[in-house]
Structures are given as structure tokens and as C-alpha cells.
Amino acid sequence: MIRAKHTTIKDVAEQAGVSIQTVSRVINNRPDVSAETRQRIQEIIDQIGFQPFANARGLASKRTHTLGLVTADFSDFWFSQVVTGAEKEAHERSFYFMLGSASSTPEDEPKFIRLLTQRHVEGVLFIHASFADESEHLNRLKESGIPVVTVGHYLPESGLAMIDVDNVGGGRKATEYLLGLGHTRIAMLTGPSGWKSARNRTEGYQQALQAAGAPANLNLITEGTWLHKSGYLGMKSLLEKRMPFTAVFAHNDRIARGAISALHEARLRVPEDISIIGYDDIPEAEFSDPPLTTIRQPMEEIGRAATRLLIQMIDDREAAPKQVLFDTELIVRSSCMRLAE
Amino acid sequence: MIRAKHTTIKDVAEQAGVSIQTVSRVINNRPDVSAETRQRIQEIIDQIGFQPFANARGLASKRTHTLGLVTADFSDFWFSQVVTGAEKEAHERSFYFMLGSASSTPEDEPKFIRLLTQRHVEGVLFIHASFADESEHLNRLKESGIPVVTVGHYLPESGLAMIDVDNVGGGRKATEYLLGLGHTRIAMLTGPSGWKSARNRTEGYQQALQAAGAPANLNLITEGTWLHKSGYLGMKSLLEKRMPFTAVFAHNDRIARGAISALHEARLRVPEDISIIGYDDIPEAEFSDPPLTTIRQPMEEIGRAATRLLIQMIDDREAAPKQVLFDTELIVRSSCMRLAE
DNA sequence: GTGAAAGCGCTAACAT
DNA sequence: ATGTTAGCGCTTTCAC
Question: How far is the CA of B245 from the CAs of A147, A318, B292, in angstroms?
Fold first, then answer.
């Protein structure tokens, strides 16, 4: 196997007639080089297309500028948005992400830990990893002293840094909106209760109902997964129960859209017969039938903020893990209407 | 900034009372170590949790076991599936992916090239990168001698390795299905013509029509993006033209679903008034209203195959770039029906 | 089967 | 402002 010969700092030094160290200073933008030499060296670098080898720098400086990215589900829209933000922020700060295990099956854990330690990642970003599955990962990492920031995955006990959306507030906001339209029998299709975000949205829902003196009816709550299919099946089972309700809070837009399919199948109209509100504001929400009223989360900004915090923790190991909650925004479209008297 | 001290090969060697080199042999599974010494060393490795530092190995061996992953759009379902497969395959072969630029804006190119060369990635996987934007990237990489495999992005001129779905066949399959149901006025909502996959689906569509003696009517073809919104707007403009058609081939399921929204708004029923077939078989397709007939692509397997090919090209630089086409599968649900006489 | 020496490409620390 | 020396943690090469 023949490998292309890369140009090294030595080549540059020889051509410029200076020592390796001086070239190193130029690469690293150190102040103690004369403008003249700096320029001469820079020209040679540009000309022969020299790129310092990250591995060698990492070995010598004990910094790898590498971050680990771990997630439970790539296909999740929420995830993809967060990653986009995270990636941009990292690049701007000259950090890069290594892909951790996508499938977080328990057997993968040793491999996963090995990846992170062998590569000496300087920090790890957990995006949308589920609750139970991952906590052992997290603890092991924490013990190893690597800074960890979690997104959409808050365990208050763990004391880990986290960036998330205010899901309690979001759940409250959604429910209050429906209450404001006169609805009191409000059903809910939740995400898996293993997810903190789902539990929090449920909590917000209950807070709002309680404050309005319209206590939650457990028969109107159905737990499921985050998928479209789950909304469809959940709504079907809700309808079979024959408990009256006039509005639904779905824990994400995919669930909401699945529920609408089931509603249509049952010849019920949205919003005339049933009002429905989602969560996320996925791109399709605007073009659903009907356009979906929903709770928007600032996902890309969350990714950026998480990465920023992670790098900050790397730079200052004493920095206490912070927990930041972003606010949600109610996006009113036409899947909800005022309850007729 | 205090960094945790990592255990090194030296620590292991000292504890085992052997030389560094012998430990190295154990790590790399070389045959020339006595079973006894090997076991003793292995026990110490396990006990103190030693992990060889990938950077140092890379520096010494000139192998980084790192691959670059570049894409135009994270939020694409197709992409996420392919990545999942690619990631699994890579892990099984002890390779890892570094995230390249997510946003493939032209300004990012220098940064992007720098990432890949500074990290000495051994190969690069381009997933679903668009045609025009990226070709300069590709050529630069090719010149640098780094193996490149593209997925969903075939430029025959470039001679690059690629794994893709047989989009011509898929387009033909979709169109033939509609023809078989008696439709002859078949409209089409395409993806961007800058994408090879879109052009190929169009080609398959034209082939099928021609073979059936029902030449394509350009007025029935509308180009758009891959997004839901585009299907919605495309169908609206199609309807405004008042050119009669009885069926639609949408270049992906999101477009199809957008089109269905527009159709519903226009008080047209699917499939009673208009039949529609999509492409991809996204999870939501099954639960659309109506459930969407579509063309399925084996995405995860494509990711695996692409990674396998990439690693093969790394191992054997003489291996000619291969081009592999996967077959598609027609998934019949209920968004199409036989044309009434 | 095992070890010693050299060096991968770079930075850190200390010279001058 | 620049050079010298040492060494990061590992593999390679060659010796025994």
C-alpha cells in the first residue's frame, strides 16, 4: 500500500532557511516572529500547500481538538437541526466532531468508550440520547473526567451540563393555548416516558390543567414513541375508549400528524371536530392538512449553545456544569379552533 | 488547564516487566509473542484500563483509521439512513468518521479541505452532496489521491467510485406502474435537476412513457426542491395550468405529501381523482392519507456498501473505482388506482 | 520470542 | 526574534 508523501514542517523550514520552530510559530500565530520572516514562511506554506498534521500536533500538545458526538437516532429532525448548529459552532472554533455510536445498543458501549478514549476526545456531546440506555455511558465518561454536555437529556441527579428546551413551559404553553380556546377535555399523546422531555411536557400539561381547575383525566393520556405511527395508533386507541375530548396535545409534530390521519379515517375533522397542537415545528407542519399549530424549539441555536458550553468547559475545567433552558415559541396555524358553546 | 494523565504503553511494559515493544505486539495482535507473556500483558492492560492513543499510533504508522463524512443536508431522511449503515460498517472495521462540513457553502470549502488534510483522513464518503456545488471538492480530493466514494451523486465524467440506487430503473418502475393502471397523462414533480438522481428518475419516466407510446408532455413536468413545500407549490402551479392529468410521479415522498396537501385544498381526492406515487418509502409514507404507494431504496445497506468499498479502496489503492447500483422495490399501498374508462 | 534504537511531525521549554 | 534540545506515545527496523 503506497501512501502519498505529505509535506511537513521540516520541508517548509528548509525552503525558508529557518528552524522548524520558527515555522511552528507562524502556524500557531505566535507573536514572536518578525513580520518579514512570517510573511516569507507564509508564502512558502501557501505555495507548497503545507498542512500541519493534526495527529502530531495532538501528540505534542496534548490537545486533539476533537469532540465526540453521540446520539440515539440520526433520523430525528430535532437531532439533525441540533447537529447542524453544533457543527457550525465547532468549526468556527476549530474543533471537530467524531461520530460516536449511532445505534446505542448496550453491546456497543465498550466499543463506544474505546473510541472516545483512544481518540482522546476533549469533550462529548450527547444529543437526544434516551434516558435509561445511556446513563451508564454518561457516568463512565464523567468519571473519566471528560467534559460532557447533554442536549435533550437531563438527569438532575447526574449533575451533568445540559442544554435543553423548557419542556415544562412548552407543555404548559400548549395546554394553556387550548384552554384559552375554551377546551377542557384535552387528550394527550405523549412520547416515551423514559424521556425526560416527554415527562416534562406532561408535567406542563398537568400544571396548566390544574391551574385552570380542569384536572387531567388519565384515560385521555396515551403514551407512545416519537413516531408518526405511534400518533396514528394512539389516536385510534383513544377513539376506541369513547371518552369525550375536544382537543389533543401531541408531544411532537410527527405524532400529531399520525393522529390527524387516524382522525380523518374516523371521519372527524380537524379543527372543526377536534383541535390538535403539536411540538417541534418541523418543516412539514406548515403544509399539513390542516397547517399545524405547534410549539417551536430553537434547535440550531441549541446545538451551538451546547458546543459553546462544551468548549468552555474544556478551556476551564473548573467551570461548574451549567444548565441552560431555552424558551419555546407558540406557532399558531389552523389546527386548533375555539370550542363552540 | 489540567488534563487527566492517561496510562501509556510504558506503564503497561513496566508493570509486566517487559519492553514496550512486546506490549505493542500484544496490542496489535502480532503472532510473535509467547502465549504466556501475551496473557500476562493482556491482564495488566485490562486491569489498568490501558487504551493506546490513536494519535500516536497514527503518527508512527501513518494510518489514522479516520474517514471523512461530508453531506449537504443532515435533516434528510435518506441521508440519516445511509449514515446509520455507514457508521455501523465503519465501526465493525475499526474506522471512524469525522464530520465534514454540513453546510456546503462555497466559503466553507477551504476549511473543509483543510479538515480532511490536517486530519489525514484515509478516505472520504460523500453522501447526498449536490451536483454542481461539490464537484470542485471532489476533484481536489481526487487529485490529492485520497480515495473517495460518493453516494447518490454520480458524475460519470469524474470516474469516482459511487454507490447509488438505480434511479433510472426506479423512475421507470414508478411510471410503468401508473401506465399499467391505465394512466397515460402522468404529471411529474421532480427534484432539482442539478441532482443526478432527479435527472435519472426523469429519464426512467421518459423511457417508460416512450415505450408505451405515450410521450411525455413537458407542461406536466414541474421542477422543484426535495422538500414538502416544493410538492405543495409544484402541484398548485400544475393545477393552475389546467392541463389534464390523472396521475403524478413525485420524485420523493415529501414532495408527494406536499402535492397531496395541495390536491386536497383543491378538493381533489387521492386516488379517486388523481393517483400519486412517491419515492423513498419514508416512515410516514405508510400512514399518510392515503397511505402512499412508493419506490423503496435500501438505504442502510447502501451506507454499508459504500463504506465497505471505501475501505477496500484504502487497502488496495490500485483497485479501480467501482460503481454499484442497488435495485429499488415498488411498495404498493393505496394512493394509486386503476383509471376508470 | 524479545529488546534496543530510531523516528513519525510536531510543540514546549529553555536557550541565545 | 530565532534556534536547540527534548519528548509526546507509539510503530518500525533490526538486532539478539
Answer: 59, 67, 19
